[in-house]
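Let us practice reading a record.
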Amino acid sequence: MENYVTGNGIKKEILSNGAVFIHKHNCEIPVVSTLIFLKMGSVNDVPKLSGVANLTQTVIIKGTKTRTSQQIALEIESLGGTIGSGVSSDYAEISCSVGKQSFEKSIEILSDIFKNPTFPEEEIKKEKMNIVASIISRKDSIHSVASDYLYPELYKGHPYGRLDIGTISSIKKISRKDLINYWEKFYGVDEKNSNLIFVVCGDIEYDTAKGIVEKYFDNLRKINLPVLNLKKPVVKEKILSKKYHFKQGYLMYGYLASELSKEVLKDYLATKILNSYLGGGMSGILFQILREENSLCYETNSIYPTKLLSGHFIIYIGVDAERINLAKEKIDEIIKNLKSKKMFTEKDLEETKLKIKGRFLLDHQTSLRQGWYLGFWEIMGLGYDFDGKYINNLYDTSLED
């Protein structure tokens, strides 16, 4: 068998159709989850059609040559299952979870969706209305307004500065033909780039799962994945301010940070730990100092989402408008104390690692999430087996790092 890899009860193989196949046998619950990962995300959108990847993924499960949107929903429901699709900046996914006895039927449905979508005009119209409503509603959230002001400045000229869902103007321009063109460009197999990954996780044997996937996903179209030539964003220190209709104030610190790659893995893990120490909910140092000790805010946190091309690290605080300057003083003091090593001790480091480990393990409780992590690490370039190494790598991170 070509490119056959096994470890920790997980197996990986290149299928006869050229796609990557990852399997994890979990017999604890009689459920099987299937995920299809594509190396395609909003980063591939051209500016005038911003949001086309998201719309394609939304509508792709809304109708095929043999099934309407309602028929797909009813069939999955009759199996006692769930189906979903989504897109991020760097990848897209389609997932389905069913009882083990319905696995083959679920794969047949997924195959029909993947290979024979019709992108019905009526469904496109409905989803475009929903997306536009979602974009408009962002104006009612001070966090969203602040984010939508910050990110284009942080990622000037880079696709990461755009919303995954697009703009009202771009959504109105997207046609059914655009969705079909996008599907033709990305929903196939590029054997050189390993752009298509199937993950099956649950109560089903490897050979059975592989055979059924190959049966229904044969004769996939061969594609040439478009090459992205994007320069890394560069940002100069600046202060941005904007008046809005909110009575509250909002303060955000935006930093460019490490992307997810083998070359800067140590930096990535160290920043994950720093993010959990500063943010991470009520136990985070921002919450403890800014809210509990100083009663400054109604919300504060930090975020460090995993990105493939260039990461970002954000500290934010929601505060009374007249106390913005005081909040800035306190955050500046926290940052200064971190850099001068006046806070974040070895004890803090170990406690933060334990917190991350606990949340990571809790998020692996279902077959769907276990399968998702395997596909996520694989599509992001570290390999599915990094899921079993993540915590150990995290614990190898030092205070100096």
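A brief commentary: The first helix runs from residue 52 to 59.
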